[in-house]
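Hi everyone,

Forwarding the result from last night's run.
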Amino acid sequence: MIETYSIEEIKDWDKGEIEIPSLQRGLVWNPRQVELLWDSILRGFPIGSFALAPVEGNEWQRSDGNKPARYFLLDGQQRYNAIKAAFVPWRDDAESVLWIDFMPQDMSQGGSTRHFWIKVVTKAHPWGFGNNDACSMLGVACYRLAIENFTGKRTARFQEVKMSQAWPFVAGAPMPFADAFDCFKCSKNKDDFCERVKSWIRSPNHEKIGSKEKKVELIRNVAANLYEALQRLKEYRIAANVLCPELLLKDDICINDVNDDNSNASSLELLFTRINTEGTRISSYDLRYSAIKAYWGDIKNANDEIAAKIMPAARLVIFAFRLAQTLSSEKGGFANEPSIHYIRRLSGRKDDEAYKYVRELYRDKGTRLKGLIDAVEEALRVGPTDGMPAVIRTSIIMHSPDVYLLLLYMAYKGRLNDFGKIAGIATWLHWFVVGDRKTRERNCRIVVNEIKTVVDTGDLPSLRKCLSDLCEKRLLLWLDKASDENFRSSGKFLNETGDKLCDWKYVEQQEWYPLLFKIWTLRELVIFATRRYFNPEFEYDPAEVQFWTGHARPWDMDHIVPKSWVSKKRVKMGPWKEVCLKWIGSNGNFAAIPFTDNRSKNDQPNWTYYEDEERAKSLFFDKELEKLNPRDLTCKPDQARMFIELTHKRMIDMYEEWRKEVVDFLD
């Protein structure tokens, strides 16, 4: 059966007609997809059909049992949310707001295919995106100007911008689409609509939005075109295929499969697997979470609430299932990620120990699981000025999930306080497991499985021995204290005679080089070492996935001594170029500072940001660097030598600052 809906009906689906079933995935569309979808809608282009299934007889799939919905939305959630987003009011509690530009710049030379300039503004990008089909990132100069315009303060930070202050910064005469639509519904005719739009744009409350000079005739022409498009929109219908009621029946779920394949999978499982893989690509974590929401729908709300400030919900639920499998297993190591087949099968085995552990973790709105998460946060000391930066905690979750699972296991066993500073062992395992991309994951799993046996039966001395054995097996790097025998002395990198400042072949042949290389390149180590500056400066929690791309994070890794000093194009450099170029890229020459301050430095010998005494101390900045001259750095050996010595010292000081967190294990 096929039904059709208008745009106005679709935007109100959540008021009763349609419900998102618990199996559906989260939001994955990017601003480009949203903007181009709305350009298609306003031009009358078809945007594909939805897939619906009756709610009657399938109440177990409800995400909120109080809603009197008729249908579940099985396919088209991203389009539905993009449509609904256009009617979100311009206010602080909005995650994103859609605008329409009534005075767009001439895009005839930019290859744009658009007719209507719908613009997306999000909490992560409150200034919007470029005027092109790719929705490209804006330049840093735009960011700085946008923040100043939004807040009225030249020194305001990214975090201070409120959504009610933000608008698409490169738009000429933008207006929230929700307001434009309200004007349309109140208008008697096209002229009335155009006057209402002009009145909104030119009102005293909005005169600072967009370009200073408003081209009235252009605004009127765009408004007239939009009026005609909105008139046509009254007749615009989107088809929805209504599937047979049996598709979502819980009894259709197969729970007795013995082979790990899809030969006996239910129609429901096959449907959401195809939906989630044939459309916008999503991760294996999200695909598994769809299965968990389908077969364990009652844990979704608790899981999402607990995960909100820590990690993506799909990651948390996989941790919970792995922990439950591990606790129920007689095998020594940690369980692997559950397959969709296992998720389906376990949902019907109430006598299985793993089933009982899952239920224990999520009982009473996930009280037990939340307690474990809170215990890990406290042990890692995420939050205090001198505690672990939240970005590193989330990096462990995303890039070393086995390490985070170990921490959850320690919390469950009540052993987080038995082994010294947990932040030390967590970062050691996160950063210093040996291996390339292909072998590191395997080695990390071996390492945490070995440590698990200590958690089960051992103490601090046995943990030290375990870690020592792992280093002997070359699975983990041993964290030598910097000394004159290894890499503490800058003399290792400075020849007293000859025409070179450093013999790199000699350095790379030393036993301590693998550890030095890590210290040299681990940017997260810089953040951890400078945490007393970083934590209060950047009120930022990377658990929110919208802040992971582009320039959404509020800091940059700054080359303290600009890279151009040793590698400027078409400029002849001196004989010390190569050695200086190596040290330019070392951690000793990097600091995490606000991106607006970083980009404003350019290539000049500008040390303004580092001159504050407290900031200089927290960032390990040595004011002797101010004696360096960009013209002489690669030409004079005394300048190159000074740069190497200062950069080397800063790198080692930051390493030793972090190493304090792991001395409990090494001493």
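The beta strands are 2-5, 18-19, 50-54, 71-75, 96-101, 118-122, 174-176, 238-242, 555-559, 590-594.

Cheers,
N.
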